[in-house]
Amino acid sequence: MAEKIKKITVALAGNPNSGKTTIFNSLTGMRQHVGNYPGVTVEKKEGTCRHNGYELDIIDLPGTYSLTAYSTEEVVSRNFIIEKKPDVVVDVIDASNIERNLYLAVQLMELNVPLVLAFNMSDIAKQKGLVFDIEKLSALLEVSIVQTVGNKKQGINELLDSIIRTAEQPPKNLASLVKYGSEIEKEIEKLQQKFDELRNDRWTAIKLLEQDADVLGHIYNEEIVISVMESILRLKNIFGEEPEIIIADRRYGFISGACQETVKNTVEIRHNRSDMIDAVMTHKIWGLPIFIALMYIVFDLTFRFSEWPMGWLEMFFGWLGRSISGFWPAGSDNILKSLLVDGIIGGVGGVVVFLPNIILLFAAIAVLEDSGYMARAAFVTDRLMHKIGLHGKSFIPMLIGFGCTVPAIMACRILENRRNRITTILVLPLFSCGARLTIYALIIPAFFAEQWRGPVMWLIYFIGIALAVIAAKILRLTLLKGETVPYVMELPPYRMPTAKSVLLHMWERGWLYLKKAGTVILMLSIILWAAARYPRMNAEKLAGLNDAETRTAMLKHSVIGRAGSALEPALKPLGFDYKIATALIGSMAAKEVFVAQMGIVYAVSEHDDASVLQEKLRSDYTPLQGFCIMLFCLISAPCIATIAITRSETGRIGWAIFQWAGLTALAYAVTFVVYQVGMILLG
Amino acid sequence: MKTQEQTFLTNVTNGTKVRLLKIDAGQGLKARLAAMGLLAGVEFSVINNGHPGPFVIDLKGSRMVLGRGMAGKIIVKLSGS
Question: What is the C-alpha separation between A209 and A241, in angstroms, rounded?
């Protein structure tokens, strides 16, 4: 008997730290994918699940405390509910923290949506001594309540049953359950009677009294606006306070009334263990050193453990390149071979090699976040970061930036505020990444005596950090101006992270990275490959040259070589000639390509070690020029992978272009000054 | 009424229970705080007056961190012990 599968759309709402993600993971398992809400950089997670012949499409809304219009996340959440009209909304509630969590539930009731409450982390609530009269509370709020323990998968089946039951029920009128007191009710009634548009829309009437910017923006009837203003003035006169605050107060009043009869606190132990850990972790003096030590361990472990799989991947791509080359006779100059081996395998392979790094780094971040430490880290670094107008959490991507800018930009998702996130993303390339280290490793020993090598290296890193700090400050004062987000944050109690959540996190980020490597980065690699090879030279002109000299001549003849020569006059004031210019253009693919390109320009054979190239560099350039090369590579044009990830993480190509152009201009200015001043000082 | 003194939250020492009287801030900020449960009349206790850093309070059983600037805008009444 073929039963017809019925589809139900379920939106998952809830406060941050309510364990919403664990419920989402328990419901959907691996059947989920991540995207963005159109037009905004808010992550959208969607997954599916089957239960009793129903197919459930589950959308994880961003974690919010309320449904006001003050943050993108809140507007996204409520617009999704209003426009997409999900069949059921599940509000995940931290049962150990019920009053504050029910605030969102009350607002969902106002929206008149079919609602199910999941009292999550009910085990912790029990430990805290909270006893619920679920039946009575459910009757008071007229919604079904299911007790769950997300990370132990308890109550998930009951939750699914409840979702289906609610979807099948006739709609209830939850909106009229919450009352705001006679004065406000009178104004709501007046508005609803006066205007047909509001007659069946109590929610909009309330939002108008709350002076909700988003709702007000969609009211085109002048008369409504005038009436609303009059109502607000009357209420302000009565209460001496904005109606918005009074309404929030009444909501809490309603909650506290409902809880008084149904929630009993039997023991008075709260947060004891968390407080004890916090006494150490957020200590005035030790907090910061502990944070730095933890970060050091994280990076040390990720880079240490990713070394082997990275080696395997390198070996694999090397083997793949050789195997494919094997289809052609040795020394063949076939275009397809070169495209496959140098362009695609070289370009994409070079990016994919970092995958183990990324996966491990995100595993570490997931552990830090799930355990509750991330909130403490933000707390500890906040004073420092606040000075440059950023949030304490920005510290984490910045640290990752010393490894690789790409995962650092991906890690910016932990920043809730859009302006903070974009500012951090824009300045991240200034934190000198591992790829740039290969450039310093070539240049520094070529030009600087043993005892100066350490200080020069340190200076380069320091200049990057200093520029990032200045740039962030300037961005926050100009383009991304706005109050530094009023700093209010919940410190969740410490929890044991679950393996499942960590694995899902790794999988999600790893997949995102691979997708980038397979699409945008692949395309850009091919373009740069072609630019370094075309137009091709006649075979006759190459006659008599050895292998290395042939490659030099061909690069000089190519688009990149010509661009390098054309740019020479512009780069001269920085102390660069066409050779450096050519290598700089090539290094747009990936910073470490600079070294390989210099090798080709100088016709160094692939088999020679670095000292041969260093010898040639030393005879052609001064240490000042060497320093300027490093400076320019540090600041200028981030690599294509960075550009691609900036575009996707900010949601706009404009930010990626701005980042690229801004940093290149900055590099030019800084290098110009350093070279010119250096020339004067050094004669 | 002498026993119930009014003061800024920043002047309150660790472990003190207070009642919120007023938040001296703009509309948007007040609404945000209200959504998180910081409303006039609510009772909470100070866990860590992290002088000069951020401020930790216990509000209805959860830990909240406030920036110092924000704590300076909150006026409270000591509610004893």
Answer: 12
Q: Are A426 and A649 in contact (CB under 8 A)?
A: no
A242 contacts in chain B (CB < 8 Å): 27, 30
Question: Shortest CA distance to A641 belongs to which of A560, A525, A510, A559?
Answer: A525
For the stretch A22-50, pLDDT in tens is 899 889 887 777 666 665 556 788 899 99
Q: Could you tell me which residues are beta bridge partners of residue A44?
A: A35
Q: Indicate if ipTM > 0.90.
A: no
Identify whether the C-beta of residue A291 lies closer than 8 Å to the C-beta of residue A156: no
Q: Which of B20, B63, B64 to mutate to test the interface with A (most CBs of A within 10 A)?
A: B63
The beta-carbon neighbor of B70 closest among A65, A275, A487 is: A487
Q: List all residues 6 or more positions away from A53 whose beta carbon is below 8 Å from its beta carbon.
A: A3, A5, A6
- Distances in Å between the Cα of A462 and the Cα atoms of A48, A423, A449, A666 are 48, 19, 20, 16
Question: Confidence band (pLDDT; 50, 70, 90) for B1?
Answer: very low
Name every chain B residue with its beta carbon within 8 A of the beta carbon of A270.
58, 61
All residues at 6 or more sequence positions from A183 whose CB lies less than 8 Å from its CB, including other chains? A235, A238, A239
Beta bridge partners of B23: B74
Sign of CA dihedral A476, A481, A483, A489: negative
* pTM exceeds 0.80: no
pLDDT tens-digit readout, B8-61: 998 888 888 999 988 888 777 787 788 888 888 888 999 888 776 678 898 887
Contact B31, A209 (CB under 8 A): no
Query: Contact B37/A70, CB-based, under 8 Å?
Result: no
Is residue A158 within 8 A of residue A51, CB to CB? The reply is no
Residue B47: list chain A partners with CB under 8 A. 275
**Percentage helix, strand, coil, to 5, in chain B?**
20, 40, 40
Q: Taken in order B18, B23, B24, B28, is the CA torsion positive or negative?
A: positive
Residue of B nearest to A125 (CA): B61
Residue tagged 């961003």 (tokens):
A62
Task: Say if residue A2's pLDDT is above 50.
Answer: no
Q: What is the C-alpha to C-alpha distance for residues A606 and A182, in angstroms, rounded to an integer?
A: 84
Q: What share of chain A is helix, strand, coil (3-state, %, to 5)?
A: 65, 10, 25
Q: Beta strand A6-14 with A88-94: parallel, antiparallel or unpaired?
A: parallel
Interchain contact, A252 vs B29, CB within 8 Å = no
